Amino acid sequence: MTIHSGHVILGQHVTMPVRIRDATAAAATFAVRAGPAREVVRYAGVDLAEPRQGRALCSLVFVRYVDGDLGPYHEFGVAFLIRSPTGRGVGAFIHWLPVNQAFTLEAGRSIWGFPKEMADIELGLSGRTRSCAVRVGGRFAVGFLVRPGIPVPSGAAATSIDAYTCLDGALRRTPWELRASAVRARAGGAEVRLGDHPIADELRRIGLPGRALFTSVIGRMRMSFGDAEVVR
What is the pTM of this model? Predict the structure, then answer.
């Protein structure tokens, strides 16, 4: 990945690519109604992938960043699988990305156009489940619980998929790489609770809560993010 000069965020220099050295995460993917999901992301002009006619894929994920160039913070995400606007197969369109720290919020919006907003994100990472509760401005938005599955035999896995965002009318593509270890996965295994925030209404319209197709828990992951490219 090419190293660029970087960016100045809130008076601090951020060198590219941004590196995350230690984080833990949990995620679940759901088959949702493609029609309503397409309406949700219409503002971005992206084309949802439909692995089965009439069904799109929506993923919920929460991350605890422990050590990285943007500092420690919590994050929750709502993403959709899309056909890449650049003809590079498929990508992940990041629709909503609340965080609980100001520096990563400003960096995410300024460098990559990530739709970050400030939220209270409570994580439960001990015991037999992993959980997350998101509140914005005191309003409960989403509660998400994952039951870890069986260990993935490979031990460590590397993946790369382009992330797409749309902020202030600009569609951007961000290349990123992830290496994960201590991964557990299973079919099903997730519970979703929805509150009275607008994102909860959107998730209801597309068919959530529902049974997850599959879930995963990552005990440790390392990532790197390059500069964003404006697609249109």
Answer: 0.94
